[in-house]
Please model this.
Amino acid sequence: MSQKQKIKNCPICLNDSFIAIETGVHQCYYCGDEVQTAITCTMGHVVCPVCLDSNFKQRVIRHCKNSKAEDPSVISNVFLSSQLDTKGGTEEYFLITAVLVTAVCNFKKQYPSKELLLEMALNRFNIIPEQLVDQHGASGAALSAGVFYHVISQGQIDESKVWQNSNLLVSRCMDRIARLNTPPCTLRDILLVITICVDFLSETLQINLPFPQRLICQRNQSPYCPKEGCIFLDRSSRYPLFSGILGN
Model:
């Protein structure tokens, strides 16, 4: 690992110190590739050189390409149980799009087409104007759901139905988020929109993804966390920061 890589923040816990450990083969936290290194962050995380130099969306794609999980909560937990090391704007909401595309492809055993659909999803996601999200709050999460549905339903139903259902899904996400009547929260919106999309897939495409009955988020140290008002917050858990995504 180069000296430049040694001094970069760990993208998982954002710790700024890397230390030498016994040289060995370790699995990358994101993509799962095996890498021989003697360098880890002080929390023990190992990230391959490619993922370390990638931005958030590129890391998401690398993880999704190698994932065989069919449950969206399992795929997304790799990122939601660590720090969302993004630059704000729409970037973090790409997790919704990529995780759901991956889950559907894995569920249908369409592994060869997954990479192409992820690239299509990324290209479509990248044209979402950041100004729209900045001025209209949770639209980033909702629009990410629309991108996912448009990509995954192509060739499955009539084109006019793709357009109609994509808009219905976006409006449903916006409505559900607005009705929470709590302060903005990226993690809450991601969890909620993934849940809505799983239900919508079942309703419109008869794709029934495996999914836990309840999702629990415990990252409550943010000053914007709605605390008791959050539908995904379980204060009774023993986990101090974020328990990941758990079934009831």
